[in-house]
Design goal:
single chain, alpha+beta, four-stranded mixed β-sheet, two-stranded antiparallel ribbon, 4 helices
C-alpha cells in the first residue's frame, strides 16, 4: 500500500508493505496505550485522542522522521495510519506547528 504524505506542497509516497499492518500490531497497541493517557496536540491537551487525532499524532511523527531521515519510523507511522483508517490515501501534514490541522483523506 502507498500512503501519499504531503508536506509543504511536496508529495512523498510512503510504501507500506502489507505484512507490516499485521506484524506491527504489538507496536500499534503500545502506541495506543501511550495515547490512552492523553496527548499534547500542539497547544491543546487531549485526554483520550480519537482515531483521527491518533493519526494526526502519527502524521506529526512522520514529519519528524522525515526531518531526521528515519525512513523506518516514517513507514511505521504510515502503517499505523493505514491500520486506523484503512481507506486513507493521503495525509496533508501541517508543518506550521499545529498537528490538529493535519488532514487525512
Amino acid at each position: 500500500m502507498i500512503l501519499k504524505v504531503i508536506v509543504d506542497e511536496r508529495t512523498i509516497p510512503i510504501e507500506v508493505p502489507d505484512y507490516m499492518l499485521t506484524e506491527a500490531r504489538d507496536f500499534f497497541a503500545k502506541m495506543d496505550a501511550d495515547m490512552d493517557s492523553g496527548w499534547q496536540m500542539s497547544r491543546t491537551w487531549v485526554d483520550n485522542p480519537n482515531d483521527l487525532q491518533r493519526c494526526q499524532i502519527a502524521a506529526d511523527k512522520i514529519l519528524t522522521a522525515m526531518h531526521t531521515d528515519n525512513e523506518k519510523m516514517a513507514t511505521l507511522m504510515a502503517a499505523y495510519i493505514l491500520n486506523k483508517i484503512p481507506d486513507a490515501t493521503t495525509v496533508d501534514v501541517d508543518s506550521e506547528g499545529d498537528m490538529t490541522q493535519t488532514v487525512i483523506n
